[in-house]
Amino acid sequence: MLSSLCQALTSAGCDVTALVGSGVPQAETALSSAGVRWEKVELDAANPQMLANSVTQKGRYDAVCLIAPELQGALAHWIHTLHRAGVPLLNCSGGFLHNTSDKWRTSCLLHQHGFPHPPTKLLGRVTARWINQVQQQWGNASWVGKPRDGAGGEQLEIWSTDELLAHLKNGEGEGTASPAGMNATERSETTGDPLIVQPFVAGMAASCCGLVDRYGRCYWLPPLQQQLVEANGRLHYRGGAPLDLARKQVTELHRLLDQAMRVLGQKAFGWIGVDLVYRPTPPHWTIIEWNPRATSSLIGWQRAEPVAVGQLFRMALSRDGFPSTTRGATVRSPLRPVTFEL
Hints:
Layout: H1 2-11, E1 18-21, H2 25-33, E2 38-41, H3 49-56, H4 74-84, H5 94-100, H6 103-112, E3 121-122, H7 128-138, E4 142-147, E5 157-160, H8 161-169, H9 184-189, E6 195-199, E7 204-212, E8 218-220, E9 224-231, E10 234-242, H10 247-263, E11 270-280, E12 283-291, H11 297-304, H12 306-317, E13 340-341
Helix pairs in contact: 1-11, 1-12, 11-12
């Protein structure tokens, strides 16, 4: 992913240097093969200032784009550290990062504002009654269990109803209630439950990514069907392919995502992605989760449209950002859907 980002920016005329944490030989090999200039830096979670010092010592730069997963708060941790050091970042931050780095918090906000999203519970609060209610409404036979701060399908598991009930019997469900008078988002802050549970939503797995400029305008790319492979109860992302959609359907999806962005908080910036499920008859989108960072789709789009992707990054960073016909309007992508494999 780092190599793809560097190549896209280089193809658009940017002067790029990649800073690679020690112990990531595959990144070093990919960057060297692509002819990207790179330097090694030391990363120590116990001393995050080391990274800030390494960046600020590199001299003049227009922006730094950090690539890290949400796992165990790593993304937010490093972004906060660099912000405090005054480093200009091409990354999400603030309320948007806070809300989308936690899938439970994202779910609470989407439900609160009426967006199409599957019912979601912390594993510690799942009850047999809730399971029955969801099955009656959604007709699902399977369930998805995943970490609140998961990324890239890490630790995501697919359970049958019997397997989910077994978690309850093992004491992992039907936890204690939260204090009265708290709304869903506030309750999410008070629990240490690391896993959420959702029904497995029938339909076509899809994703839509985009670039957000410094004014919060998102340049959405066309949605793509996700190529997923299930193995040992886990899903693995293997690439993307075009969806058979009319222009109006794509526009309606982008409008829905724009509306959702506004309730998820301020300071979205840079590359973002949304995981979705699409049902064609009748046409319907379900929002599964948001990714406030560079996603695997960046690799595919960079391979297919290297110059265009690089230019989008430059526009996002520019003083004017993306052009719009009306104030606050989101730009619609002229790019065509692509096919790629990972």
